[in-house]
User: Which sequence fits this backbone?
């Protein structure tokens, strides 16, 4: 029989977990391993809320393990380091993102792409090397191998840094990899949520022209005046879509639900690339001729490796890329999930774990 989460490790830990596909979160006692020689233990101060957490809470990708403690945009302060840790010391401000383990020897790992390792270990809801289940950042402290921990530069506020760990790297990575990072290029960002608003900010910091493609007309003014987008197109308005045809060098599609791809492909110039990062649970419809007739491509991209995650954080610190956040207390999280489902957040919820996660005995 499986060992109870409260006693499988020596240290008592506390967080909020979903117990089933209702996704409702409630207080949960579990345990964490003691600090191993290459481990960093840190007190969680802030944790962002990603739409992936919502997909996982509701088992929309059919791979969730309950009890499930979500949270993969985790920022905190180091409280203990193992004897062989050389990157961090007690008191450092650090973060962990979506990954806590990989094989370290495959081609992907050797090329700093741990995210594509076949043995990658996600931060929560996965089996760790010792056979226990991983739990995420909606919890009081984390223990992680130093390889998967990154440094938060002092220029970044700790609460606003959190969304960079997942949303930030997920959009920054493909801009770089697919060459959509040259000043003057024209990028489309589909879906102005957590990922989308950071795609706009990174693209602007790189000198790109940006069109937001959104289902929410009410987001227009802020997208242009506050986030710095150049144009705003309502995807359900045929005239606006028609006017934007063949204008984009690339698209980052962050939409979390099933949506029509073909009108987006029409917005690309010849040779344009649509990079999907949103992960709807059902297949999308794709006709090939519109790709063939313009030598266009569709690709996907999954978070990023640890080296690039640190580069992205440093870039954000240096170029003043700051996620727009709504800081919430822990006990607001279920309401936050309902609002996230309705795209009612500007633009990322961040839980103030340090001040509001209190054990309920
Ligand atoms: P989010 O904050 O909820 O943003 C998603 C946006 O998509 C919404 O704000 C909305 O923008 C648009 N949208 C929602 N429903 C739609 C629909 N039915 N049709 C068209 N547009 C719709 O979510 P997020 O945290 O940014 O995450 C977005 C997606 O990326 C999720 O599927 C998540 O799991 C995935 N993700 C992938 C990776 C990766 O590595 N590839 C990493 C993190 C997250 P508008 O109101 O502007 O239309
Ligand atoms: Zn590997």
Assistant:
């Amino acid at each position: 029989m499986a060992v109870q989460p409260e006693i499988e490790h020596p240290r008592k830990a506390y967080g909020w977990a979903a117990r089933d596909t209702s996704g409702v979160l409630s207080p949960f006692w579990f345990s964490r391993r003691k600090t191993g020689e290459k481990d960093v233990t840190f007190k969680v101060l802030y944790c962002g809320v990603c739409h992936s957490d919502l997909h996982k809470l509701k088992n929309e990708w059919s791979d969730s393990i309950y009890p499930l403690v979500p949270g993969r945009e985790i920022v905190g302060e180091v409280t203990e380091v193992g004897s062989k840790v050389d990157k961090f010391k007690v008191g450092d401000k650090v973060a962990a993102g979506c990954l806590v383990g990989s094989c370290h020897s495959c081609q992907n790992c050797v090329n700093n792409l741990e995210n594509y390792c076949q043995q990658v270990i996600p931060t929560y809801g996965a089996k760790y090397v010792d056979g226990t289940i991983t739990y995420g950042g909606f919890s009081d402290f984390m223990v992680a191998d130093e390889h998967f921990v990154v440094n938060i530069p002092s220029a970044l506020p700790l609460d606003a840094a959190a969304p960079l760990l997942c949303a930030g790297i997920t959009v920054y990575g493909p801009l770089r990899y697919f060459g959509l990072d040259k000043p003057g290029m024209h990028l489309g960002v589909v879906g102005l949520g957590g990922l989308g608003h950071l795609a706009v900010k990174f693209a602007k910091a790189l000198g790109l022209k940006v069109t937001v493609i959104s289902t929410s007309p009410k987001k227009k003014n802020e997208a242009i005046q506050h986030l710095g987008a150049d144009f705003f197109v309502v995807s359900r308005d045929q005239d606006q879509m028609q006017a934007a045809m063949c204008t984009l060098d690339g698209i980052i599609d962050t939409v979390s639900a099933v949506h029509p791809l073909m009108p987006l492909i029409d917005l690309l110039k010849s040779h344009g690339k649509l990079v999907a990062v949103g992960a709807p649970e059902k297949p999308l419809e794709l006709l090939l001729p519109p790709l063939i007739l313009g030598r266009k491509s569709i690709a996907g991209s999954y978070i990023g490796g640890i080296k690039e995650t640190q580069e992205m954080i440093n870039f954000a610190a240096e170029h003043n890329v700051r996620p727009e956040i709504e800081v919430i207390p822990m006990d607001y999280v279920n309401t936050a999930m309902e609002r996230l489902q309705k795209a009612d957040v500007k633009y990322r919820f961040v839980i103030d774990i340090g001040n509001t996660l209190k054990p309920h005995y």
Remarks:
- The CA atoms of residues 108 and 352 lie 34 Å apart.
- The chain has two domains: 5-166+323-356, 167-300.
- The domain at 167-300 is CATH 3.40.50.720 (Rossmann fold).
- The longest strand covers residues 39-49.
